[in-house]
Amino acid sequence: MRLLVRIAGTWLVGLALVLAVIDGTKSLGASRLAPTSLAQSWKSLNPSSLVAVESFFDSRYFANLLDGAMAGLLSYPTFAVAGVTGIVLILLGRAPRRERYLHQDQI
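-> structure tokens emitted (107 positions)
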């Protein structure tokens, strides 16, 4: 299971690097910073699923809180969301450390 989590995290970090290069190229062409937000990327890939997720959050008890969190997440650049998610998955997939502290006789 840890292997699958680390592989997914590695793919997400790789995707984030590709998206950062695409945004960098667009920024160089426009002579200004032009990152692609997660909402723009999601709308270009599958707009009906974005509407479905928004309607799902609207039907929940904490709809106002979830709408604010979703709007905040959708405003971030796509490469940042993919990169942070990938790094978190890589860290979650690490093997646990056996010894955290040295014993007195190991110093």
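DSSP finds five helices and no strands in the chain.
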